[in-house]
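Lab channel / #folding
Pinned by the channel admin:
"Please post every new chain as: sequence first, then the structure tokens as a reply. Keep commentary short and put observations after the output so the thread stays searchable."

First post following the new format, from NK:
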Amino acid sequence: MAFMRRFVSGTLAIGGGLAYPRDTVAKSVLAPNNHHRIMRYLYQQYDGNEFQTQQHLAQFAGFMEFVLEHGDAALDALKDVEMDPDQRKILENWIDEGLLEKVGASFRLTPRAINSLQRKALMEIFKNLRPDSAEGHDTHATGAGGERTEGSRVYQFGDPVSNLDFTQTLRNAVARAGKGLPIDLKEEDFAVHLTESKATCSTVILLDMSGSMSRWNRFSNAKRCAMAVYALIRQRFALDTVDVVGFHSGAEVIPEHRLPLMMPKRVSLFDPEVNIRVPISKIDEAPQHFTNLQMGLMTARRILARRGGVNKQVFIITDGQPTAHVQGDAVHLVYPPTERTSMITLKEAMLMARQGVRFSTFALIEDYYYMDWVSFVDHMTRLTRGVAFYCTGDNLAQAIMESYMSGRKQKTSLS
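Reply from TO:
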């Protein structure tokens, strides 16, 4: 992490006799030097603001953990809780530093705070990732724009000159015209290095927000993974897109700035059997804690239709079998889960798979391993020719990293 240092007395002499005046700020950065990383300093005018200490950073990090755990309620508490002068000063500092902003009597996270959460999630979850300047995902095919691989091919009009394979080009010329100088080069002799292709990818994360996701800290872990994917794409895959869709009794697109504040829906019905039919236009007025994966898939399909990625995929993070489906102009909320709901959901998944969408399902199994819904996940995985990960919330991140980064980025289709 870059940090700031203030020099407050006299002048600072640097090698070679260079001197910098009092109240100069040095910002240390790690910069590459061949294969090593060295410390360099950038100097700028000190603005008089107090620098963040480790204690200060820890305070804000602790508050962010509170936000992830409690969502909107954490921000609402700021306007209601009684604070002593020191606590009030801390809050004002966060506002001054652009981490929080006050809108009327309420508080909300700034883009800077959202980015900080995403970077923290990425560092915690994807610790094994190394920086890479590539903007696409490696595939098993050859193409343009990637790293060189073994072999070469005939030059074609439009190939970059920088990829010319001079050794193979000379060999071709000698093989055609024979040994001796000068070497007679013709267009047919030119060869270029083979390179890995780079594939862009559009991803939709389908996040289960049903009532059961509040157990075992599942939803908090799922949010961290989604935020880490946002940060990963910004750092390594600038051409990719990611969208998050939350599904419960209905489905909703979750904007990036709202993701840290989202919470699973509270269970509001405890009847042993439920069969409710609600018009789609009034789904917000119905109990919200059911699992409408079908509507989530429908929303994801519309989003991916607008995205331009060569590869398209959905990540489904769920902990239970679907208990809601759309039929006609109504949503059916059912419990216990029915075969009809499962079949309608699988039909929507099949439709997306036929359009070339890749499926990765992350089934959270802390307390559901022996229940029938695992069979539903298996069935969906076979029908869509996707992949399934059976994991707990604690190792969800590892599974998502494996799916996103392992090279399973090629489109699949059903014959």
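NK: The CA atoms of residues 135 and 237 lie 4 Å apart.
TO: also worth noting, Residues 54-109 form one domain.
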